[in-house]
Specification:
Order of helices and strands: HHHHHHHEHEEHEH
Strand order of the largest sheet: 2-3-1-4
CATH topology of the largest domain: Alpha-Beta Plaits
Structural class: alpha+beta
Helix content: 40-55%
CATH superfamily of the largest domain: Reverse transcriptase/Diguanylate cyclase domain
CATH class of the largest domain: Alpha Beta
Number of helices: 10
Largest sheet: 4 strands, antiparallel
Number of domains: 2
Strand content: 5-15%
Shape: elongated
CATH architecture of the largest domain: 2-Layer Sandwich
Length: 249
């Protein structure tokens, strides 16, 4: 995988000569980005946080997971003389995976797990609608609205469902949304527990939302509860982008 640039060893510069506790020959041997982990190891700092930061950085630089873990092993062996701990390996791997998935989601029109439109695709669709509205002088907030469905799960020890099971619950909701709005409307995912449909703001909107509420009531969603509401669109495309980002948090 090569998302941006190739993964190479760190090249020292004039600014790198400051003494942070590492011998110069060790500093020169460190892979690019891994000095933060070396510093944390030497200073008894937050090694896990450093591993997470490095995992994200090397993923953005195009390193595959094998390269990322190889760099981690090299760093630990150079600095402390031992292989990396399980916790450090897990922290770096998880951060690498999250950064990689985020990048792939930005490229794809669909969320790979649920088949819902990605957040990036939702932004693009709304941008198109606002550009069309400028040509027709009919505001988007008068022609369209967002219908949001949110899953609310129990928290704490009483929340046994795995993340994958929760994603399947969202797919169940999506199928109900598609059964109500089957005319090619854009249906996407907002964060982990919300689905959104970009629908016409017409005389049947209230009736359609009521029908969706009845269909959802008949679903077996385990311990999850649902919230369903209509979200108005703001006057500008920039405002719509901010709204989507807020809803996705």
């Amino acid at each position: 995988m090569a998302m941006f640039t190739s993964f190479t060893r760190r090249k020292p510069s004039e600014a790198d000569q400051s003494d942070r506790g590492l011998r110069e020959e060790v500093r020169r041997a460190l892979p690019m980005h891994y000095e933060a982990i070396a510093d944390a190891l030497l200073s008894e700092g937050n090694v896990m946080a450093a591993c997470e930061a490095v995992g994200r950085d090397v993923a953005r630089d195009g390193a595959d997971l094998g390269e990322a873990l190889s760099g981690l092993r090299t760093t630990f062996e150079l600095v402390v003389g031992d292989p990396p701990s399980f916790e450090a390996t897990t922290a770096l791997s998880m951060a690498w995976s999250e950064a990689t998935l985020q990048y792939l989601h930005q490229l794809s029109c669909e969320d790979p797990l649920t088949g819902l439109a990605s957040l990036a695709h939702l932004r693009t669709r709304l941008d198109e609608m606002y550009r069309e509205a400028e040509l027709t002088d009919v505001p988007v907030r008068r022609t369209h609205a967002l219908v949001i469905v949110e899953l609310v799960f129990p928290t704490g020890p009483a929340a046994p469902e795995h993340a994958f099971t929760r994603a399947l619950r969202l797919v169940q909701l999506t199928e109900m949304i598609r059964s109500v709005w089957s005319g090619g409307q854009t249906i996407g995912r907002l964060g982990l527990h919300r689905a959104v449909a970009v629908v016409p703001r017409d005389a049947d909107l209230g009736m359609s939302v009521g029908l969706l509420r009845e269909l959802i009531r008949d679903l077996d969603l385990g311990e999850a509860r649902t919230r369903l509401w209509i979200e108005g669109l703001p006057p500008t495309g920039d405002g719509a982008t901010r709204l989507l980002d807020e809803l996705a948090r």
